[in-house]
Amino acid sequence: MADSFNLGPLAGLPTGEGRTFKLGDRRVAVFRTREGAVYATQASCPHRTGPLADGLLGGHSLVCPLHDWMFDLRTGQSLNGACGIKTYVARVELNGSVTVEVDDEDEIVASFDVGVRQGMTSDIATDAAR
Amino acid sequence: MGKRKLVVIGNGMAGARAVEEVLARGGADMFDITMFGDEPYGNYNRILLSNVLNGSQYPADIVMNPLDWYRDNGITLHAGSPVTDIDRAAKTVRSAAGVHVSYDHLMIATGSRAFIPPVEGMTGADGQLRHGVYAFRTLDDCDGIIAKAKESRQAAVIGGGLLGLEAARGLINHGCKVHVIHIGKHLMEQQLDGPAGAMLRSAMEAMGVEVHLHKSTTAVLGDERGITGLAFKDGTTVECDLIVVSAGIRPNAEIGMRCGLTVERAIVVDDHMRSIDDPDVYVVGECAQHRGRVYGLVAPLWDQAKVLAEHITGRNRQAAYHGSKLATKLKVMGVEVAAMGITEPTEERDEVVQFTEPKRGTYKKLIVRDGRLVGGILMGDISKAAYLMQAFDRDTPLPEERLSLLFDIGAPAEKVTLEEMPGEAQVCNCNGVTKAAIGACVAGGARNASAVMKATRGGMGCGSCKGLINELVDFFCGGEAEEDPSIHYYVPGVPLSTTDLIDAIVANDLRSVSSVFKVLAGGKEDPSSKPGLANLLSTVWKGEYEDERDARFINDRMHGNIQKDGTFSVVPEMPGGVCTPDELKRIADVAVKYKIPLVKLTGGQRIDLVGVPRDDLPGVWKELGMPAGHAWGKSYRTCKSCIGTDHCRFGLGDSMALATKIERRFRGIDSPGKLKLATAGCPRNCSEAYVKDIGAVAIGDDKWEIYIGGAAGAHIRKGDLLCVVGSHDEALQVMGRFMQYYRETAKWKERTYSYVERVGLAKIKSIVIDDSEGIGDRLDKSIQQSIDAYRDPWLEGQQPATPNQFTSLVPAEG
Ligand code: SRM
Ligand SMILES: Cc1cc2nc3c(=O)[nH]c(=O)nc-3n(C[C@H](O)[C@H](O)[C@H](O)COP(=O)(O)OP(=O)(O)OC[C@H]3O[C@@H](n4cnc5c(N)ncnc54)[C@H](O)[C@@H]3O)c2cc1C
Ligand code: SF4
Ligand code: FES
């Protein structure tokens, strides 16, 4: 079952950024790439629930703001780890408004996350590993 | 001809590596590959679990074959789905999840599991380890240990071997008191002799690990509420609420036994890594027993995987495995131990070469038989380990001069050694990379060590072989290895150094980050390079650039530091740590009104309102009525100050006034790395000015010493004296000029502590102080323009730059 939500005009989403929307019971991150495409994913990073909508975009790559996990917005696949994210169907309608379809499949959480060194920046983390 | 079906049971280090080797031999065209793994992940580097436990690596960092790898190689992966049955007659396997597939060839790579000694109270009624007791073998184990360690006060590790010590070291980092319980006479008995074991014990105890020897555990104490301790045969006990069992491993060989394969300690294989009972069943890794030996380290499995692949693909049906010699390194931060072969002489002709310096924790012992190395222990100084491990592994004759085995005395010509090193010699043990593989990679076009490491994974494990890889790459490049060019780039995504990039930006009149990518990076947007470019554009164009908001890191979009829960911190400006009572009151009022979860004094001498949801930011900023403190960006941050002449009996200069002038002048100036400053009223340095990016220390007569490149964060460095100035104004001018030169020449995220070292103090002095290049005026003007273009970002609270900038959850229209 998928519920369809109207998020209003595309202009409500700033170019190259994301926003977190409340769609029914779900929190969904919706992005507008520089190329003008719209994508929707689960709102929290599977790693440690970082706010994905606050990440950096480049093409369809998304970088989580907390520890730099990277995802492909088109498929949800991970670009640098083992764990991907759930995506939702999103599109721009002919009248210019954005629609997102929310199904009830589970969101993805990295089951092996271990909460060590919270807040450590990833470059310092790798520094320490060196 | 149709493809044959290859089914692999076990998705760990050996299974995945064997499949990689098969694919490298054209296996994708010969086989349809299906893999089953008990663990729900792709393959990860198990040996780096020690780093995950000690917090120096994230689980994501140790993944070797992410799920995409399986897909890209057309491999069907059933992860989290252990195989329960093999039917050799029907040639099928069945998994617990009910997947039933047939095979032409089967590969068993089930590895081993932790051995759990039969001790009372260790397991619950269900036969599983009870809550609070963990093995240390998988990511899930690691996860469990870390979660428990957070609430635990005392942890006990049963087993003082390699793994047990690595676990103990990791647990220390989680703040619990750690005991190591060892049944033997000394630690790491497999690899060390008595004296080395005793020195290792002192080293572990110096780190805060309590070592208990000769202890045979008889019971886990506690009740249904949890465990409380361990009891030993000698009647003593130890208190603990977390137990890690690391008392050896047991091969997962039952699956072979159930389908009728010969199993002794593990599944018995021939020299082609095939079960001796069935030519279609290969076995690799810790579940294989070869010539009576079962291994518990990774080096053997790299060799086994190669032989298996040669054989199964028909590349070389004669390929044979002859067994491996074992050498190990202990991966415990702060203790260097390498060991190989036997620990004591066993034959009369064995010759022992030894050196001990207990005070420094150095111990070296080699056992030489017929001029060849048969055993070795190195502690403290393991600089000769790479050479010795090689000699041990290859059985090469040792030099007559035994002293040179232990120390670098007039080091033997390195080139000769590299040349003599055989191609099959393992360089990176963690990832099984040989000298030949590095050679092939260079031959294939890689011209620098980082490219080779990326392509082969060599050096990406524990990292201890990086030096050797660098040397080998240089050797294969005929001494002309290139440096990784990207280390000179301002940001990785645009192939230009900072100065070249600035020139290109100006020449092409590029005013936005997207246009920089378009013109200078072939249109490929690298998300991680965006904030650096945005920062540089602001340095180049001052206010006159096209501020694409998406290029900014979230901190610079919200003008606060993002916290782990997605809220932000608010740190108002407070130059030199000084504020008025009125400001203090307003801060308090705001904290009360907005229910700020935490009000904290920062290490930068100001007040942090922590945990503000973005919806409240505009209100908080407005009601504070204080300028932004810029505690979030790559920019000028703060200037700390001591009391100085106004009140301090030792004060030689007015440090508070200078700090205030500095802050008012440079606030918010973008820079490649953070700029943290301090002023001190005298060389007692109460405000730590010697260890700041820029520090000013009063020495009397209105004179100030200006230091640059100091640091006391992750790196500690005393700043270098740039010059002595005669007034506040001169100090401001010199500081501004240095900042501007740094802004125009440093790489993104390069703090002054590395920048000053890279560029050299002499060069900086000549440009900033002596104006040797005649750019002084330009630098001064340029920083002045940036200062003039400054606008308090918190004003944006009243005029958001983008829709819903300050809304944490946007409702749908309906
Ligand atoms: C708030 C504060 C801690 C505190 O409560 O005292 C703090 C908090 C953070 N520091 Fe710091 N640092 C704070 C003073 C310091 C100091 C002390 C100082 O400024 O005198 C240092 C050592 C000085 C230095 O930088 O050389 C310091 C060295 C670091 C470093 C290590 C930098 C390095 O290269 O060595 C990092 C990591 C980094 O920059 O990548 C860091 C990073 C961080 C970050 C931003 C973590 C991050 O990247 O997200 C922390 C934000 C936490 C949060 O949730 O807001 N913080 N940090 C301090 C704010 C000072 C201020 O008023 O602006
Ligand atoms: C914390 C730690 C640190 C280590 N450090 C070092 C080191 O520094 N140096 C070193 O040389 N070695 C080290 N080792 C040992 C090294 O990790 C092993 O030698 C290596 O992982 C063995 O590989 P394997 O593939 O045989 O077994 P594994 O890597 O264990 O892989 C076997 C896989 O098969 C799966 N499996 C089991 N049964 C089934 C089934 N029925 N169906 C499907 N899947 C199944 C298991 O879940 C597992 O994922 C360390 C080990 C640990 C745990
Ligand atoms: S030292 Fe700095 S970065 Fe580390 S936890 Fe404390 S505030 Fe965060
Ligand atoms: S929370 Fe997203 S990378 Fe850590």
Automatic annotation (TrEMBL), chain A:
> What Gene Ontology terms describe what this protein does at the molecular function level?
2 iron, 2 sulfur cluster binding; metal ion binding
UniProt keywords (A-Z) are: 2Fe-2S, Iron, Iron-sulfur, Metal-binding
Is DNA-binding one of the keywords? no
Membrane-spanning residues: none
- What would be one Pfam family of this protein? Rieske
* Keyword Coiled coil belongs to the record: no
All copies of domain Rieske, residue ranges: 5-101
Check the record and name the InterPro entries matching this protein. Answer: Rieske_2Fe-2S (IPR017941), Rieske_2Fe-2S_sf (IPR036922)
- PANTHER family found in the cross-reference section: 3-PHENYLPROPIONATE_CINNAMIC ACID DIOXYGENASE FERREDOXIN SUBUNIT, FERREDOXIN-RELATED
- Specify the protein name: Rieske domain-containing protein
Q: Which organism is it from?
A: Skermanella stibiiresistens SB22
TrEMBL record, chain B:
Q: What residues does the NADH-rubredoxin oxidoreductase C-terminal domain cover?
A: 327-393
- One GO MF term, please? flavin adenine dinucleotide binding
List, for all copies, the residue spans of the domain called FAD/NAD(P)-binding. Answer: 5-291
Which pathway is it part of?
A: Nitrogen metabolism; nitrate reduction (assimilation)
Q: What is this protein called?
A: Nitrite reductase
Nitrite/sulphite reductase 4Fe-4S domain residues = 633-770
Q: Which organism is it from?
A: Skermanella stibiiresistens SB22
Q: Where does [4Fe-4S] cluster bind?
A: C642, C648, C682, C686
